[in-house]
Amino acid sequence: MTVGCMDFGSAFNPNLGFLSRFNVWERSRTFRCTAVEVEPAVTPLSPTMTTTVTAEEIRPVLPAFKRDVTGEADPLATLTALAEARNGSAFAHAVAAMAWDAFTPGEIAQAVRLALAAGAFLPARYISAEGHRLYPEDAELANMARILAPPKVLGTRPANPSAGRDLEWLRQHASEYRGQWLALKDGQFLAAASTARELQAALPRIQGIFVTRVA
Amino acid sequence: MLLFDAAGDLFASGAFPYLDHHPNDEIKTARIVVKVGLGNIETDAVVDTGGVFFICDADVLALSGCELGTPLEKHRVNTRGYNFGGNLYRVSITLIAQRGESLPLEVTVFVPDDPWPFPSFLGLQGCLEFVRFAVDPGTNTFYFGASA
Fold first, then answer.
1. What DSSP character marks residue A131?
2. Sequence spans of domains, chain B
């Protein structure tokens, strides 16, 4: 669980539970949004006030966000509205306030898709990781968590002292091959074709070949 | 010459002489074009710190022979003013060095449904986010290495 900085300048934050139904303004657009209805556990803030909420302050409020008290037929209604509005900032705040152990694997998978639709890529990673932690046997959540996991460095490999030659050839000759797929090796032209499949057919082997398409 | 930090420790373990515009771009917009290894092949890619994921055309991936596995389907990416639908996969790529050491990475790749009209992109989130990198525009050198 993470806690973010309150940002009324961009959207809403349901963490403190003092808003139920309200309008959200984002980049000159106004849309109606449904939030969960909970007891106001923390004194409401002025809409112009920005503050940081600590984990200790927010933790007592979190259980109220379990799906059984939302009063919504669709427990993902808030996230759906924010995804439709492509409001990644507000989406991230909402995700941080969710108690994901109250959701089914299918709902969590849907929340990941909503996060991606909202452009909230880090929340998508977070939700998928949480879902996989909560439901390690669920194949879809495992696949989502694997695909969205942070990038990993896999060690090192030797450099190639002639690695720059292919791009240098491309810089000098690309304009002669507009619309073509090209194959090069160590700065030497190997083949050109109008499709990737034709290019592959023109090469005895593809291993280690530099391939690009000249637009 | 690779890069070292103030304590004398290696900052970047690899270096590559990048192109400062993509050959496809007739108006020569400033870019950092590097070379990546992808499965069986190598290809060009533009460093795009404002972007997300590694974005790669489906035909390039098919040539690479990469095993992609089950996708995270029907994602949309907004880039360069266009909205593209496609799938997300996990794939291994290598930032190729001409000096030092090349850097293999496991990253998230976005594969558009339709032919991708741009070069491949190396976005920050999901791709370069834990890679150290630096650019010397005086020598067109892209330095990179694993984050400590």
1. H
2. 18-146
Query: What CATH architecture applies to the domain B18-146?
Result: Beta Barrel (2.40)
> What is the average per-residue pLDDT within A88-114?
90
Tokens of residue B114, six digits: 């339709």
Which tokens hold the place of A168? Answer: 């240098």
**Chains A, B: CB pairs < 8 Å:** 158
Identify the band that residue A197 occupies on the pLDDT scale cut at 50, 70 and 90.
very high
With a CB cutoff of 8 Å and minimum separation 6, the contacts of B103 are: A153, A156, A157, B13, B14, B94, B95, B97, B131, B144, B145, B146
Per CB-CB distance under 8 Å, the chain B contacts of A171 are: 19, 23
b/e sequence B118-145, b meaning 16+ C-beta within 10 Å: bbbbbbbbbbbeebbbeeeeeeebbbbb
Chain B residue with Cα closest to A209: B41
Classified as helix, coil or strand, B31 is coil
Lowest mean pLDDT among A92-106, B36-50, B123-137: A92-106
Q: Which runs of E-coded beta strand occur in chain B?
A: 14-17, 33-38, 41-52, 54-55, 72-79, 82-95, 99-112, 120-125, 131-136, 141-146
d(CA A38, CA B124) in angstroms, rounded, equals 37
